[in-house]
Amino acid sequence: MSGNSASSGLRGFSGGYRYSLLTIVWTVVGFFLVAHLISLYSRKDNIHQQVSSDQLQVVHHDHPVVHELVRVEEESLRLPPPRKRSPRTSKRRSRKPIPLVEEFLDEKSPIRHLFFPSVKTAAFGPTKDMGNETSYYFPGKIWMDTEGNPIQAHGGGILHDEKSNTYYWYGEYKDGPTYRAHRKGPARVDIIGVGCYSSKDLWTWKNEGIVLGAEETNKTHDLHKSNVLERPKVIYNEKTEKYVMWMHIDDANYTKASVGVAISDSPTGPFEYLYSKRPHGFDSRDMTVFKDDDGVAYLIYSSEVNSVLHIGPLTEDYLDVTPVMKRVMVGQHREAPAIFKHQNTYYMVTSWCTGWAPNEALAHAAASIMGPWEKLGNPCIGGNKFFRLTTFLAQSTYVIPLPGVPGAFIFMADRWNPADLRDSRYVWLPLIIGGPADQPLEFSFSFPTWSRVSIYWHSKWRLP
Ligand code: DGJ
Q1: pTM of the predicted model, to two decimals?
Q2: CA distance 424 to 140
Q3: The domain 151-330 belongs to what CATH superfamily?
Q4: Whether residue 54 has its Cβ less than 6 Å from ligand 1
Q5: CA-closest residue to ligand 1 atom 3
Q6: For ligand 1, is residue 171 a contact (CB within 6 Å)?
Q7: What are the extents of the domains in the chain?
Q8: If the chain, 464 residues long, is cut into consecutive pieces of 10 residues, what is the mean pLDDT of each piece?
Q9: Which atom of ligand 1 is nearest to the CA of 351?
């Protein structure tokens, strides 16, 4: 009896044990099933949200000219047979053809006209007889101002002055002897100053002159003509009613690595140069400023020898940085930042660091401008593979919201001519936010929740 009861107790116990084990297993399985269903459901919701915002954009982009902007345009480069290296080099076994980027950088390259078409064959602007191509952009060709001179506003940015409903384009106005790519020796850069152009339509640009001039005699001055002034950007401060310019200030060897600040009562200057500094005590090279909808402005700069971007808010008068700063895209070696915002999301296009040589652009997105910033991938679409891997042979500098078309922007980039920086070209192309991002994201374990950023190649195009 007792044996039986003991064994039945044991059976009861082991049965109970098995029963509770099964219960635990099924509870865990059930828990995961429910969690999976919830995640699927919310993912579906996200996708729906994305689709509906895309549909929204499709509605906005239904204009026939907008449709044209997102047409994928292929472009074959008509290249002669690849050149071999010089006789001295070709004595060696390796007779590799010269890579296209090297051809691009070589001012004596026989295919240079493909990258830098001459003023005779390829200039556009209001003083040219454009036939029915008036107001078309021709990326890479020479863009003339209203006086028929090539526009000089490199590494530039745009200010939309609401008071006068006028656009101002500020950029590096360069001059001097032939420049050298600094891989071959120190750059010979004579600063002339910051050039300013005004326009009502973003195509017809009137030269407003040098709004911040170089210093001719005082060699210790930041703006002495032998120094470097790059990537000037201007924002308007509603409280002080001043136009504030931020720029990269450096010596000819790029060791000063500072930002400079200048101020003016008028968008067309003259700007008064205030000072330069290393923001937050760090080296600062390529930079931009971004003014948010709430009036807070931010400085974004490549730092720690270009290995990381720093972002921090400016003081209320926009004349200095505050102590707040975040390190973003750490170790990613990005420069040439261009920031823009759409539907409460911040976007940024940057380049890799290869001097004046073009390289592959990357787009990033963030819910807060202070980060984290997530990688979306290469935004370039169309053209050809070489174009896409070199940002259409150019480097980002600014992104302008396209008036009246939410989600559509103009991507502004510089096609640097290291042999003569004055002759650097502008590559302006339509940038559209929409459609799911095409790359798994660093911080998201589900499908991407950001929209894609796409820059469409067009050999010619115009605004809607
Ligand atoms: C790349 C930067 O983006 C430019 O503004 C300029 O600083 C060059 N490097 C100098 O090599």
Answers
A1: 0.84
A2: 9
A3: Glycosyl hydrolase domain; family 43 (2.115.10.20)
A4: no
A5: 336
A6: no
A7: 53-72+98-149+332-464, 151-330
A8: 38 52 69 45 34 38 74 85 65 70 88 88 92 95 96 97 96 66 50 94 97 94 94 98 98 95 98 98 98 98 98 98 98 98 96 96 96 95 95 98 91 92 95 74 59 95 93
A9: 3
